[in-house]
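Lecture 7, part B: from sequences to assemblies.

Below are the input chains for today's worked example.
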Amino acid sequence: MLSFIFRRILWLIPVLLVISMITFALMLSVPGNPFEGTGERPLPPETVARLRAHYGLDDSIPVQYLRYMQNLLRGDLGPSYATRRSVNDMVAAGLPISATLGMLGLVVALSIGIPLGVASALNQNRAIDHFAMFFAMAGVSVPAMTSAPLFIWIFSINLGWLPVARWGTWQQAVMPAIILGIGPAAVLARLTRASMLQVIREDYIRTARAKGVPERRITIQHALKNALIPVITVLGPLFASMVTGAVVVERIFAIPGMGGYFVGGVSSRDYPVIMGMVLVYTFFLVLSNLAVDLAYAWVDPRIRLE
Amino acid sequence: MAKIVKPADSLWKDAFRRLLKNKVAVAGGVIIIVLTFIAVFAPLIAPYHFAEANFEETFSAPGGRYLLGTDFLGRDMLSRLLYGTRISLTVGTLGAIFAFTIGVLYGTLSGYVGGKVDNVMMRIVDVLYAFPSLLFIILLMVVFKTSFSAGVEIVRGPIVMAIATLDRFLGGMLFILIGISLTSWIGIARLSRGMALSLREMEFVQAAKALGAGHFRIIVRYLAPNLVGPLIVNITLSIPGFIATEAFLSFIGLGVDPPTPSWGAMIQDGVRAMRGHPHLAIYPGIALALAMLSFAFLGDGLRDALDPRLKQ
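Predicted structure of the full complex, as structure tokens:
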């Protein structure tokens, strides 16, 4: 197990290096420079030259990259070109909010998806099953861009139950968390169902039943425990899609998370912000994948021997 | 000896019959046909041009002269919704086809050649796989948008100019397609490598090899027919994802160039006027979900029809 963990952590280094290089190369391949501006009044050339010198943009690309990585290792993501804040500031302000939203979404996804999948498998081809699978199909295919305005219209504007937007109170978190969690819930429901259907046909389930184990205990302890193994593997990619999907939800509900800074950086072509956000996102996603891999290896010892 | 009552149907005929029995899948297929029709004949169906602004009647309510109302520039919502079908369907289907072409070629080549080449090719895929594709595509779009749209005056060679002109002609769709194709093949390459590996070991392939069939014959006669079914299913099932990606990019302002209508861009415009005019965000949202659902239901039906064993 230890060597497995070690190998997985070692693998992080090339991944993050390559991703930082790709991001850096892409950012620098853009012609012109961030201070020339597009459409707005151009700055006087002396000012641009001074700004370029100040941010070290006249050095060669490898030098710039090495300096960036050096600062990164010290935990410094650099200054934002478009605003007066540092990228660290933005991450410190946005990340806790985005992480909270992501975790709430994950809680919604797990608490809807898994029970639904189990209920569906135990009632195969009955009404519950058909309903659950229809929900699963719709949940996957209805994006937040559709559900968020609909929810706001129904629950905020018409019924007045929940606030329209912003962040801070629990009421404001309800709709964003549900909207963020529904899609992943649908994915989890389908997977849990398929996995449960396979497991409940296994011999050891029949054995348990023959021994007289209560049905409830069979479902939870014998079947679900094993059925959840393949479900764990998708949690990593699922969380990744939720975190990036949160950009839409944050924007529609005016939640001041990372997504807003990222989109803002994109629209003002603020490269250090884009670069920093991509690296922070990727770091957390790679980390969550690692956690999922470890959890997987822990519950299923066969995996460690790859 | 029992008499053969009915001649055996071909795989495809059989699958098609099973598909027709699946009402939800048929509904999905019908909606897709209607949407395609709308996309092709949008200029004939739409009451107004998508960019025609009427500043006298901004934010007008549905009904009257404008069936679904107007947006913040007084542009007809219905016309923009109808034209929006074009971008969504084109990016969805072409994006899926391009991504699968790259991914399947890469994956099967890697799996078929094997050895060191396979190892190197798959490590590359592993690293890229860790890069969240939505972030990757955002980066690519930033680069495309800035390098090609803003600096038109910068002399950059005829090929670059031609690409930029073509993209502007297509309302920004070309770069969305390139971005999607470049970022979405990675997962597909992994899948198809696995498929190629397991197919290679199948008994009927081994038998063909033992009988002296060459590489070409094995690929065309034995491997390809077994891949076509799953490929059609997977392409159809991936289309909703590509439609969503386009909508997402246009939503954050990296997709189509205004005034080209895209449902994602319309939702973004609508959300800003959510309190007073919620329908501006809701209508394009429904169109988006409808298109995505149709492909998902059709793909699901196709999967059940082509491989009845999978249906549990």
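Note for the exam: Residues 229 and 299 of chain A are 7 Å apart (CA to CA). Keep this in mind when comparing with the next example.
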